[in-house]
Each structure stands twice: as C-alpha cells, then as structure tokens.
Prior knowledge:
The protein is an alpha/beta fold. The protein has two domains: 4-48 and 301-391, Aspartate Aminotransferase, domain 1 (Alpha-Beta Complex); 66-295, Type I PLP-dependent aspartate aminotransferase-like (Major domain) (Aspartate Aminotransferase, domain 2), CATH 3.40.640. Helix content is 44%, strand content 13%. It has helices spanning 4-11, 15-30, 49-61, 64-68, 77-91, 105-117, 134-141, 159-165, 188-205, 265-278, 286-295, 303-319, 341-351, 376-392; strands at 36-37, 100-103, 124-128, 145-149, 170-175, 210-214, 236-241, 254-257, 331-335, 354-355, 357-358, 367-371. The protein has a seven-stranded mixed β-sheet, with helices on both faces. Strands 9-12-11 form a three-stranded antiparallel β-sheet. A two-stranded parallel ribbon has the order 1-10. α3 (49-61) packs across α11, α5 (77-91) packs parallel to α11 (286-295) and α12 (303-319) packs parallel to α14. The longest helix is centred in the middle third of the chain and has 18 residues, at 188-205. Residues 41, 105-107, 132, 176, 180, 214, 216, 241, 243, 249, 254 line the site of pyridoxal-5'-phosphate. Pyridoxal-5'-phosphate (PLP) binds next to α6.
Amino acid sequence: MTSKMMLTLGTQRSAIREIAAWGAKRKQEIGPENVLDFSLGNPNVPAPDEVAEAILSIVQDSSPVSYNSYTASPGADDVRGIIADNLNRRFGTDYTAKNLYLTAGAAAALCIALSALVSSDKDEVIVFAPYFPEYKVFIEARGATMKVIPARPDFSMHPEDLEEAINENTAAVLINSPNNPSGFVYDEKTIHMLSDMLRKKSREFGRPIRIVSDEPYRELAYDVKVPFLPNYYDDTLVCYSWSKSLSLPGERIGYVLVPDKVTAADEMIAAIAGSGRALGYVCAPSLFQKVIGRCIDVMPDLRIYATNREKLIAGLEKAGYEFARPDGAFYFFIKSPFPGGGQEFHERAKKEDLLVVPGASFGAPDYVRLSYCTTTEAIERALPILQKLMDEK
Ligand code: PLP
C-alpha cells in the first residue's frame, strides 16, 4: 500500500511550481527574455561576494573531512555560538549555542518546530490568510489542523478575529512577518496586542499557546522595524533561514531558536532534537554551517528590490490597482480587477506571457501574487502589460 497523504502531496504539484514549470517550457519556446516570470520567490540578487570567498577559503584551507562530515545534530557548537552572539547584539538577548538548532532552511525549521509542539490530533495551529501555501502541508503532516483567520482587506491583525479563532485546542499561532505573499510587516502595537491575547488565552485554557515566528524575510524590510517576537512573548519559537537574505535558497540552511523563556524550555529543546531525528534530518549541511559562521554579519543588498518595489508601487497605482503597500519581502499581493478573481487575472496575464500566481493557494482567491525578485528590466516591461490588463476590465 502507498500512503494516501504522501501520494496526494507528490502528485498534486503546488500552484506555484505548476506555473513555474509552464514558464520554463514557454521560455524554451519563445526565449527566456520573452517570458516575464513573477511566479517564484527565488532571489534574483546573487549571494554576496563574502559567501563565495568563505566557501573558497574553507575548501582551500581545511581538510575535506572537516567540512564534509556530519556535525552534531543541532549543528556545530562554534557556529551556533556565533549565531547566538549575533542575535544577542541585535536584540539584546542572552542566547547561547544550546538555544539554537540548525536546520535545512526555514521549511525544515517549521516542520521540526511543529512536530515538537503538536501533542494531539486535536491540536490546531492558527495561521492568517494570506499565508505561505506549504503551511497546510507542514501542519497537516504533523497530524494537526490548520485554522485560518481570513484576510482583512489591509492584511492587518484584529483582536476579535484572534478571540474567535483560539480555543482549548490551539497549540500555536504561526506568524510570518514580513509576509509571503503580501509583504505585510506587523508593527510593535500589533505584536503587543497578539502577545496580550495569547497570555490571556493561555491562562484561560491552561496551556501555553506558542507563537511560531517564520522569518525567512526578516532582513528584507524597507524602512520599517520588524519586531523580534521573543522580546514580546516568552513562548515564541523562531524559524529562520538565509535562503532569502543571503540568496541561498538551494543551500538549505536555517535554524529553530528556542529561548530559555519558553515554558519548559529544556523539554522543548529536547523535543526539537527529537523532531529533527524523527524526520531524518541528521544535521544541517556542514559546509554551509561553516559559511554562515563566517558570514553572520553580512546583510543583503536591498537596492535592486527597493528599486523594483518603487517602480511597481508607482506603476500599479497609476494603472489603478488595489493593493496594500508591502513593507518587506519581495512580493505584491494585488486585488484582481476581474470577476473571476485571481484565477482570471492569472489566465489573462499568462496570455501575455506574464506569470503571476493566483491567490487561492494563499487563502485569498481574489488576489494574485507578483514576486519582484526579478530584474528591474522585467518590471519595466511588465508595467505596460499590467496597464493593458487593467484597461480590459
Ligand atoms: N516560509 C515562507 C513564508 C517562505 O516564503 C518560504 C520560502 O519561500 C519558506 C518558509 C521556506 O524557506 P526555506 O527556503 O528557508 O526553507
């Protein structure tokens, strides 16, 4: 017999991958320069030079055994210490290596964290629409239920929505700020509201409700502060990666942070190790653990994204599109002007060889996601098409 769940997951490709596959085929037919592909969140900005320098120096100056070997399952002690020091400098915390568990990117970090905190098949994990579509897969594969709080038109978080969604089965609230697909960043006031609500509800239901903060876009914020959640709410696990900030999505490197202030932190740290073991991760990629150890202070060059963002804001406003200005990440989530919602927008755009992702898989079918980790030239060529689509409305 075959696992029905895994068979379904393996045969139903994600909407984003489906579109990207169509785009790859189309590029072969008409030339890559003629397909304006805004579908994937694969950073177009190359990894900073420091990354290549670190790889070369590690490979040239040390024995292959040292960078090809397994590390301890939570990651090399020295690298975890370097990451902890970096967080302490930036956020005034006092973490040590033991608070960090290195992972194969944020996706693995999320699966490991969710596995560690889901304790019954009645457990629910709350997410806010629009959300990263893989959350449903990650949560349901852990045997829990994903409970969606529908999107508000401006993507903001409201206490009454939380109050209604939280119950005695709520194990965690999964937050993603800066957000994929909307670029929305929760401000400090919102995080205080969320923290107060979760403290109240944890008391009411007699169980600590965790925040899982999914942060692959933390460093991609345009002139706004991204609050560091453990400083507001004790029961927070942070899932982080360098996939977007250092343009290293294929290298699979990230971490789960379990601060000491988490309820029964030592147990949670042990459960995180147990999850990594049960999921068969063994350890995060060794070479890239070392690379991160050397590049910990390298920050992304946001200039291309900032330019693309400005051009899109101006172009979309001029064309009359409805959207919330994104403060972070590299996505716009745009309201479809067509009666058939995001799907119709996607299909019309596809006829012009412009690829955008319909919002249904993000839990908001009236929208499309446009990913601007592309060249600025692609944006310049897309704007007249977006104008034309709006004129057809
Ligand atoms: N979380 C969100 C919101 C994402 O957009 C992504 C990737 O696009 C991930 C997690 C997974 O990131 P990683 O490549 O680090 O596994």
